[in-house]
Every structure is written in C-alpha cells, then in structure tokens.
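S1.2 Input.
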Amino acid sequence: MLKTTHIFLFMLVTIFVASCAGYRVRDRGNPFEQEKVRVLAIPMFINKSIYPGVAPIFTREIARLMASYPGLKLRTTTGGDEDAVLLGIIESPQRYSQAYNTTATKFTAGALQTSIGNRAQYYLPTSSSYKISVRLVMIKNPGKLEKELLASSLGSKIKGQPGSKVVFQQSFSYEGNFNRASQDTITPDSGGITNYSKTRRFFIQTIESLAVSTAQNVEDLVINVF
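S1.3 Output.
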C-alpha cells in the first residue's frame, strides 16, 4: 500500500512538472533593456480632455509603475540624459453634451423646491457618465516636432516597429459613472452648500480608480510584449 502511494505521488509530481514546462518565470528587471532604454523621462501628461485636474493623477500612477522596475531610472523632465520619453495624452469628447451623460435624476420637490425659489421645478441630475481615453507613447530621443506630432490627432496613427524610435504606443478608453451631490441649500449648514465640491470629489475618486486600472493594463502590456 505504501509503495502504491509513493508511485501515485511520483506521478502527480511528474504531471505537475510537465504542465509547467511551457511557462517561464519573468525576471522583473528593466523590461525595456532590449530597446536600450535605461533612463526614461515621464513629463506631466498632456490633458486634451474637458476634465480639469486629471493629468497629474494618471501621470502619478504610470510613473509609480515604471519606478517598480529595477534598472530603469526615471526623470520628470526632458532634455537631459534620458534614452526615451513616455508621453501621455488624455482625451475626451470636446462637447459637454458628449462628454457627460445624465444617468439618474430626481425631481426638485420638498427642500429642493424651496432651494430653487420661484423657478419652475425640474429633474436634477444625481448621476452622470463620462468618457475618457489615455494614449501612451514611448519614443526614443524625440525632437520637439516629433512630440507635437505624437500629441496631435495624427499621433495615434503612428505605430511602433522593432528598431524604430517609437518603442510602443497604446490607447485605453473608458466610460465611467459618478454620483452628483444634490442636497438643499436652505441654510448655511445644508449639504447643498458644497454640492459642487462633493460632486468634484466623487468624480476625482473614479478617475483615481481608472488611473490604477490603466497602470495595471500597461503592466500587462509590458509583460506580454517586452
């Protein structure tokens, strides 16, 4: 019985080793070493969206990811000793009606009716969706005109090729949803006094989550491509 158990365990180990034969544990070093990129500049992302204040959030998360790779040195400005520059371009529809879409409302009754005074009652937005995209381009030693071209609407047409200056280019598009604060403003202590600030905070919180997701998507890209 004991001998049979040993044989069974040996077979399990053999099957396990064989099943792992096609996998390779990736050394978490500098993934861009093969492209001779050892010093990378990550300037503040370019915000071409209608959403203010989102560029630092995405820049921070992507820089945090790149800083986790040993052997890859980072710079926050260009024009020094960097081997490549990582450009980030944040975009959205340019019309407010296209960038935002109301997904939930409530009627201005009760305290809300008192807050709007003699105005006709209406449906107040309580939740909105939005659209945003992040395009990342890593390019070796770009000139001013090259950076301007890559940041333009034509830049997305440029593809990275082995041995070319463009190491990679990838876009990530998102549609998110956030709540809008909609309390009354009857007294100075009413919640509606800070409706805009609260709504702004709700929106920024969703952007922070998207930035983390973008960094994870970039990490997956790096694992699969480099």
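S1.4 Remarks. The two ends are 50 Å apart (CA to CA).
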